[in-house]
Specification:
two-stranded antiparallel sheet, about 120 residues, mainly beta, about 0% helix, 7 strands, elongated
Length: about 120
């Protein structure tokens, strides 16, 4: 009888996987953001909200969306992606948000906005 080239019952592999602390990922985190719009058509709006979660990895960003404060009888909607993280001296970080709102108002217009997500 011919002997098989290999016997799967005797063939196995054993391995272990461990991650160094620097390779492990921390849980997702979010930031509260706030900012203001440009002054257009005689008024400005404020914006506040919370970003979408993101893993704390180098160069991560967060998505965000929201509605401005009610000023001059209307609001604007906005959405975007933060800039990359900016490190702080205490080991934390923050992000910049900036963009342009949607069109709205009795005199239709947009606003540019800028703020921070801390």
């Amino acid at each position: 009888m011919r002997k098989p080239e290999h016997d799967d019952r005797l063939h196995n592999h054993h391995f272990e996987l461990s991650l160094e602390p620097s390779m492990s990922q921390s849980p997702p985190h979010q930031h509260k953001y706030e900012g203001q719009t440009s002054f257009d058509v005689g008024h400005r709006h404020s914006l506040r909200g919370v970003t979408a979660p993101a893993l704390d990895i180098p160069n991560h960003v967060h998505e965000y969306q929201g509605t401005t404060s009610f000023n001059d009888s209307h609001v604007h909607h906005f959405s975007g992606v933060t800039g990359p993280l900016i490190l702080t001296p205490d080991g934390g970080h923050y992000h910049i948000i900036e963009g342009e709102t949607n069109v709205n108002g009795l005199t239709t217009h947009t606003h540019n906005y800028m703020g921070t997500a801390k």
